[in-house]
Amino acid sequence: MKTLSFAWRYLWSRPLGAALNVLLLSLGLASITFLLLVGYQVSRAFDRDLAGIDVVVGAKGSPMQLILSGVLHLDVPPGNVPLKAVQALAQNPLVASVIPISLGDNLQGFRIVGTSHTYISHYGATLAQGRLWDAPLQVVVGATAAKTLGLAMGNTFAGAHGLGAGGHAHGDSLYTVVGILAPSGSVLDRLILTDTASVWTVHADHAVHAAHDDHDKGDDGDAEDQPVADDAREITLALISYKTPLAAMSFPRYVNSQTEMQAAAPAVEISRLLNMLGLGTEVLRAFAGVLLLTAALSVFIALWSAVRERRGDLALLRMLGAPPSKVAALLLCEALWLGLLSAVAGLALGQAFAAMLAWALQLDHSLLIGGMVWPAALWLVPAMAVVVSLGAALLPAWGAYRVSVLELLQSR
């Protein structure tokens, strides 16, 4: 304990140098902490939201766009597909379940999703209040959406056209909140869920009013302005689970070649996305490595200079009976203090950077990044801090260990 106390005093006997070393180490460790946190939370979000979904079927276009829009709700969908075609897929012997997804409206940026009760049970979500919908224009609100929007049981609201805030409001079709989900940590937390028929009802009413407006202006309108017939209903996409893993070999090929739709495998597309993002991650990791090497060099120079400046103190310690190992331990403890202080500061800064990213990009409404989490990999940060600081102190400590009392006194 005395050695640790002496080392602490020695460390802050040069406050500017100590603060600089702590800052350099902290910045490198904060960069690594930030990368670990973001990587962990993004991977967790992907694994959580893609779990149990073997393939996504939707309109022809970009497969990755289909995954991002239909599963993670981060993009706009490529288009709609006929309901009849999706119902035909549900009869396929390889298909275990089909979850319909209909998009098109939002409330202040939170998507209103037409779907079935299976969508909620798929993620194991439970109700905190109320019940599930049993009629069109009734909604169940995710925990994050309800908290942010201030929605409560019995509230009514009008959805806005489009998937982003600022669209035209469907003021003639009001939704009623009949349930609020408990936090599940899944994509459902940031969605407003309703029956698929609600989406058709809202847009059919919109088409009728548009047709009436055209008629009042002397325009009878065309067929596209009329309410959609039941046999021409469309949905945005479908989330499909297989009965057997072997279906992955033939089902997507069947959809892509025998229908007007496309099938996208979430695992494949997310792997492609992570590979595309890998280059930027490697650059940031290399930058963090450079900061750590610079910090290690700074610590080495500071401790080496400390040995030369404190030769009188070291001589006094040796004359008072301190063995060479005690003198070397004093320098190692000083480096250990540097590592521990830097680890605490680096972890705090890394968490703060992740929270700032979530706030700046509103990622708490998408991938739920920014919360205080501690993945197992984060223990690497304090371990690296200790290894770097002690590694930089080894040579100065060895030099202090080998210097004799006579040499120390002669240098005075």
Task: Give an account of the 3D structure.
The structure is a single chain. The chain is α+β, with helices and mostly antiparallel strands and 412 residues long. The chain contains 13 helices and twelve strands. It has two domains: 177 residues, no CATH class; 210 residues, no CATH class. The chain has a six-stranded mixed barrel with strand order 3-4-9-6-8-7. A two-stranded antiparallel sheet has the order 2-10. It starts with a helix and ends with a helix.
Radius of gyration: 31 Å
The 3D shape can be described as elongated
Q: How much β-strand is present in the residues? A: 15-25%
Which spans have pLDDT < 50 for at least 5 consecutive residues? 207-228
Query: Biggest β-sheet, characterized?
Result: 6 strands, mixed, barrel
Order of helices and strands: HHEHEHEEHEEHEEEHEEHEHHHHH
Structure classification: alpha+beta
Helical residue percent band: 55-70%
Number of domains: 2
Average pLDDT works out at 81
Number of continuous helical runs: 13
Count of distinct strands: 12
Distance between the termini: 29 Å
In spatial order, strands of the major sheet run 3-4-9-6-8-7
